[in-house]
Design a protein that fits this description.
The chain contains eleven helices and 15 strands. By secondary structure, it is an alpha+beta fold. The chain folds into two domains: 3-145 and 323-356, Aminopeptidase (3-Layer(aba) Sandwich), CATH 3.40.630.30; 153-186 and 220-286, Aminopeptidase (3-Layer(aba) Sandwich), CATH 3.40.630. Strands 1, 2, 3, 4, 5, 6, 7, 8, 9, 14 and 15 form an eleven-stranded mixed beta sheet that branches. It has a four-stranded antiparallel beta sheet with strand order 10-11-12-13, sandwiched between helices.
Amino acid sequence: MEVRELKGDEIAEWDAFASAHPEGNVFHCSRYARILDEWGHDYEIVAARDGGRFIAGTVIDSRPLPMTTWRSGNAEGGVLLARNDATLLQAFCKGLVGVLTSKSYVDFRLYMHQPRRIDGLDVTENLLLHDAVAKLDFKRDENEIGTYFVRLDRDDEALVESYNKNCRRDVRKAEREGVTVEASSDEALLELFYEQHASTYSRKGLQVPLKKPFVGTYARGIRENLMRIYSAKFGGKIVNMAIISLVGIPRYMKGASIVSTMDERVPPSGQILHYEIMRRLRDEGYRLYDLGGSPGFEPVEGHPNYSVWRFKRGFGGQFWQDLGEYHLVIDKMKHRVLSLAKGVHGKLGSLRTVLDG
């Protein structure tokens, strides 16, 4: 098997393959990878063919370490396979490591989104995929991260009835009290979105993303028709917002609640926002909705993200616990240097956040 980086017209060919693949998503799209240059990132697509057809491939997002030729990369979308075959995955990953080594990659993180468990039940055939990469010294992070997938192929009443009791109540309450939802491609909304998103991060003690690349990335994503903004309004004011990717299975990318900064009472808005998103995506022909990452199957009280976790669980979707995140150290000596540099970069990043405002 020849595993190599794609060039020129092959990129468009890959995009067609990824968009037709049932597991393809925004992270497999070259247009999305390209807009990450707002953060100083590069990308490359590495794939293998059989008889002219793609049989495996992935999109690698990478960032060079300043003043070196070294790189650290990740494949957030994972590997797309023409068939769910552990032998094929292992052969591709072996060739992939060779490509990365030749390009001075120091380490690499592979996200494998095939389900290890669905609603707590093992998917035994996918454990063979885990074994395939583990034999190549990829180390799995020990967590139960996955996502809730909500089925959209049903009418409005059946969709709401699939939610839990509290979620249904909040949708109906917001409807009665006049909360409305609008879809938009207006980039100007990103200023307000960033302010509220950054406020949430700050309140939770998380590092706030830099404003310029954050806004620039999502603005370009909207222009490329990769994403859309949805806003919930009450009394003519925006009270909640979400950015949704539109490639493959639609995915909840980012959220921003304005309610916490308002003095007046506001009906529950997050539930109706996502209900309306689901309805409209269904009417556009989408069959599933990905609510984004969650720490596990059932929410655990006391967890730092318990409220968001419980909110997502309320929509009654199936929880797919991913095979997980796998980390490979390609060059141990350089990796040690890279780890030290990342520590310094993290501190500088915090300072840049303050200066950036």
